[in-house]
Write a structure and sequence with these properties.
mainly beta; Acetoacetate decarboxylase-like; seven-stranded mixed beta barrel; 12 strands
Length: 254
């Protein structure tokens, strides 16, 4: 008998998260990190594709993070979080600096086939197809740090002026893995000016993937120290609400 978690037909609570990771050149990551953050030794790129209730209806999303340290703490800097639920985008950015933006996400499992696809402004920038394999050990509870940036440019758009200067935001989460399975598959990154992951974070090592079902043990979101406001200024122009380099909220700057 399977020890996998069981959910009621049609239930949106309990979907596993498709966790994909691969290595890239540390220099690729460094170019995307604002002052105050440094590339971790691992230099991995992480893509988490999910469906979770927010607050009580399904939110499909793809979280894109890179290994980065802040004040000597290991963690992952959030480059972007494309979601299909508009209501959660602006309040999340305004309150906590979470880099959410609108995207169309297709994600499902059919028997042992796993499929995921993310599209933004008509460009499908990420696609994964795989087959579920062996069940992996759950391991012990563990803690993760995710880094966001809360900032507000000055009303009127004055050069290098802020109403709220950039601050690091720490998201400390504690998990216990309930179930996880290895997935053997292929990750495809496609060129897009709206989500330039293929250009800025190309795949340069083996891709690994798992279907991960966690138990959430705790989550704390805290405002950390200010970041260098002048050094941060080149990072204020981004694509939509993400941290991809853009021009006045528009697509990739060449």
């Amino acid at each position: 008998m399977s020890d996998a978690p069981q959910i009621n037909p049609g239930e949106i609570i309990g979907w596993p998260i498709l966790k994909i990771e691969y290595g890239t050149d540390p220099a690729n990551i460094a170019k995307l990190l604002p002052p105050g953050f440094t590339v971790s030794d691992d230099a991995k790129v992480h893509l988490n594709v999910y469906c979770v209730p927010v607050p009580d209806e399904p939110e499909y999303g793809v979280l894109q993070t890179v290994d980065a340290d802040y004040n000597g703490m290991r963690g992952q800097f959030a480059i972007g979080l494309g979601i299909d639920q508009e209501a959660a985008i602006f309040i999340s950015r305004e309150t906590n600096g979470q880099p959410k933006y609108p995207a169309e996400i297709d994600y499902y499992r059919f028997v042992n086939t796993v499929s995921a696809r993310a599209t933004h402004q008509g460009y499908t920038f990420m696609e994964f197809q795989g087959q579920v394999g062996e069940t992996l050990p759950n391991g012990d509870p563990y803690e993760e740090n995710e880094w966001w940036v809360k900032v507000s440019r000055a009303v009127g758009g004055a050069e290098k002026a802020y109403d709220f200067p950039p601050h690091a935001v720490r998201v400390k989460s504690t998990y216990q893995t309930v179930h996880q399975q290895k997935v053997e598959g292929e990750l495809t990154l496609r060129e897009s000016k709206w989500d330039p992951i293929a250009r800025y974070l190309p795949i340069e090592s083996e891709v690994s993937a798992t279907l991960w079902t966690p138990q959430f043990l705790g989550r704390d979101i805290t405002l950390e120290a200010p970041l260098d406001p002048e050094g941060y200024w080149p990072f204020v122009d981004t694509v939509s609400g993400s941290h991809w380099p853009g021009t006045h909220g528009g697509p990739l700057r060449d």
